[in-house]
Amino acid sequence: MVRRQLHNRQPEIFVQYKNTEIFRADYNRIFPCKSAKEIRVNLREPTLCANKPIIKMPKRLLKYKNYDVHSITTVSGERKNANIATWVMPTQLGGGMLAVALYKIDYTIELVRESGLLNVNLLARDQTALIARLGRKSGRETDKFKCLPHALDERGCPYLSEAVGYAQCRVVRSVDGGDHEVFICEVLKQTVLNPDKEVLTNDFLLAKGLVRA
User: Fold this and answer.
1) SS3 (DSSP) at 71
2) Is 67 helix (H, G, I), strand (E, B) or coil?
3) How far apart are CA 38 and CA 40, in angstroms?
4) 115: region left, alpha or beta (phi > 0 left; psi from -120 to 50 alpha)
5) pLDDT at site 23
6) What CA–CA distance (Å, rounded) separates 32 from 208?
7) Three-state DSSP class for 107?
8) What is the block-wise mean pLDDT of the chain (213 residues), using blocks of 10 residues?
9) Which of 10, 15, 105, 200 is the most buried (most CB within 10 A)?
10) How many Å apart are CA 143 and CA 87, to the nearest integer?
11) CB atoms within 10 A of CB 70
């Protein structure tokens, strides 16, 4: 690895690969200094390389994956909430079981742990406004269902009536998944509400600039 200090004080870092100097901008760490004259460089924000073409490093493997976008709606007593979730997958042929990953500090996970009830709503492309409304605000501080089209199932658990549809679920068990907890859920019922709508995906949100890569 080659360290350089350009005259404009912009420190650059290159990786030597097959006699080609490649700008290394895909790492979020600080390299240790070899001397007091060297500058510690944080590579989260790439800098421009003077007199050198920037060759982007390949993105990490899992960045190539696309995901459907869901809202997890839940209820516990008089409290209810909705969030945004992409890490949802079937774990049984026929769709009888789902794995749902929820962020550990989210209000939604608190209610799911208490009641074991949730609905997995498959969002449609015309629901992109819900990303900010349900994914960037806490249900502890605001009523996310105010002016949001929804209904209640026979358990009193909300579902989004303008989604493509929803899967009514009951938590069977959960496992630790790092900064998320993974809930293994029995699917009690699947309901298609709007069959003509297109499914919202993470790639669609990226193309519209609504989420960051």
Assistant:
1) strand
2) coil
3) 7
4) alpha
5) 41
6) 38
7) helix
8) 41 44 38 38 42 66 93 97 97 96 95 98 97 92 94 98 98 96 98 98 93 79
9) 200
10) 24
11) 26
